[in-house]
């Protein structure tokens, strides 16, 4: 038995890591970029009476994070189907 993973398993893992890295970039941009670095620029716009920078720092980032969780689950289900490792219901 070989310790080396099969090509399909390696491709599956690579697709998973690629997805996670893309979502981490979005997470970083929203939390650090919009919540800290770009807050002064975003404060020129208002949402619900609050400056957009404040909104992102307090609540907007949470909404994006929740979206990322659901998107990850949706996308991983699709990747699982592509590689034939989906869960049976």
What is the strand and helix layout of this fold?
Blueprint: H1 7-37, H2 39-42, E1 46-47, E2 50-51, H3 52-83
Keywords: Membrane, Transmembrane, Transmembrane helix
Transmembrane segments: 20-42, 54-74
Protein name: Solutesodium symporter small subunit protein
Tell me what the structure shows.
The protein has 89 residues and is mainly alpha-helical. The chain has a domain at 23-83. The protein is built from three helices and two strands; from the N terminus they run ααββα. The protein has helices spanning 7-37, 39-42, 52-83; strands at residues 46-47, 50-51. The chain has a two-stranded antiparallel sheet. The radius of gyration is 18 Å and the shape is elongated. The two termini are 31 Å apart. The model has no long low-confidence stretch (mean pLDDT 88). It holds the Pfam family DUF4212. Keywords: Membrane, Transmembrane, Transmembrane helix. It comes from Salinisphaera shabanensis E1L3A. The chain crosses the membrane at residues 20-42, 54-74.
Topology as H/E string?
A: HHEEH
Spatial order of the strands in the main sheet?
1-2
Quaternary state reads single chain
How confident is the prediction overall: mean pLDDT?
88
Question: Major beta sheet, specifics?
Answer: 2 strands, antiparallel
- N-C termini distance: 31 Å
The secondary structure category is mainly alpha
| CA-based gyration radius | 18 Å
């Amino acid at each position: 038995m070989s310790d080396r993973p099969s090509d399909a398993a390696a491709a599956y893992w690579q697709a998973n890591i690629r997805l996670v890295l893309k979502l981490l970039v979005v997470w970083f941009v929203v939390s650090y970029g919009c919540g800290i670095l770009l807050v002064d620029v975003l404060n020129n716009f208002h949402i619900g009476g609050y400056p957009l920078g404040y909104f992102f720092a307090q609540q907007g980032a949470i909404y994006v994070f929740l979206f990322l969780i659901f998107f990850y689950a949706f996308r991983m289900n699709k990747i699982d189907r592509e590689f034939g490792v989906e869960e049976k219901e």
